[in-house]
Write a structure and sequence with these properties.
The structure is a single chain. This protein is mainly alpha-helical. The protein has one domain. The chain contains five helices and no strands. Helix 1 runs antiparallel to helix 5, helix 2 (43-74) packs antiparallel against helix 3 (83-123) and helix 4 (134-146) crosses helix 5 (148-184). The longest helix is centred in the middle third of the chain and has 41 residues, at 83-123. The chain is elongated.
Length: 189
Amino acid sequence: MEEGGNPGSLIKVVHLLVLSGAWGMQMWVTFVSGFLLFRGLPRHTFGLVQSKLFPFYFHICMACAFINLCISAAQHTWAQLTFWESSQLGLLVLSLTLAAINARWLEPRTTATMWVLQTVEKERGLGSEVPGSQQASDSYRQLRMQDPKYSALRQIFFRYHGLSSLCNLACLLSNGLCLAGLALGLRNL
């Protein structure tokens, strides 16, 4: 930090902490916790856990993106932006936009569709198995073939889930590139 506790240095530290914290959280949720929970919990329990965690996760991503964008935008003279500075601002705008789409539009629709799917599955005695068992796969396949409404709902769910996953991966990549740029700009370690 600069001598005298310059507020500019404090803002830079906050920017780095928020950006790295958001990226670390995104890495954990995307590549570790989801896979562990999916492999270890019954199907409907996994859905319940995700429905409680994801609204907070996406809103925290959105808040971190907003804070990072505000800090980054305030640190630069708009008329004299370098290519990297304008790219970083663009990446932060992208991250904020995609996190907001996930938090405010995709996650609520994905979760609502999941609840309807689970209701149908519970009526058929499904949902308490841990994913991966062959017998359960056959039961779900039969349900899809017998119930066109369930099959259509499942397609809607996977459409929303897929879009949400793509938005999440793009946010992760965006924040990772911003973090790499900040790391490459460090003078001394």
